[in-house]
Design brief:
single chain; alpha+beta; two-stranded antiparallel ribbon; about 30% strand; elongated
Length: about 160
């Protein structure tokens, strides 16, 4: 009696299914990696399609982990666009600027003056004393911060999912 030949465990159909599944997982991982690492930047862009038409001189840094942008806009247009529960600023507030991620860190050197430290800090943050502000900070440090500087007629937005 002849011994039956063992049947191959992998048929062509199964092999194609496995290859398709691996390709799908790799595509998903690539898309996820790109969404977490992709960065868009712009500085003094005349207009962008994701802000109101009245917004101008737009500077931004957009990524998954940190997004900040600022732009010139009339206060009424900013309030209409914001859809946040903006409150008048009663004491100065600070908000990170787009340049927090785009400009190199500056070493203040030994014993810097207060003026020098303020100048260095202004590269990555702005302090606003007269305007509107909204913050929704999460316990993990992420959240949304929106501010409007009435003196400069400039809006600042900073978000992080952290």
């Amino acid at each position: 009696m002849e011994k039956p030949q063992p049947r191959s465990q992998f048929t062509l159909r199964r092999l194609l299914i496995v290859i398709a599944a691996i390709a799908a997982v790799m595509a998903l991982l690539r898309a996820t990696y790109i969404s977490f690492t992709h960065v868009e930047t712009g500085e003094n862009v005349a207009q962008v399609n994701w802000l109101p038409d009245s917004a101008s001189s737009v500077s931004y840094y957009k990524s998954y982990s940190f997004t900040a942008y600022e732009f010139d806009i009339p206060e009424a247009d900013f309030v209409a666009w914001s859809s946040r529960n903006l409150k008048p600023i009663t004491k100065p507030v600070s908000i990170y600027r787009y340049s927090h991620m785009t400009k190199p860190r500056i070493d203040p050197g030994p014993n810097p003056s207060y003026e020098r430290l303020t100048e260095i800090l202004a590269v990555s943050q702005v302090e606003i004393s007269d305007g509107l502000y909204y913050a929704d900070t999460q316990s993990n440090g992420g959240g949304v911060r929106v501010a409007y500087d009435r003196v400069k007629q400039r809006a600042y937005v900073q978000t992080s999912p952290r």
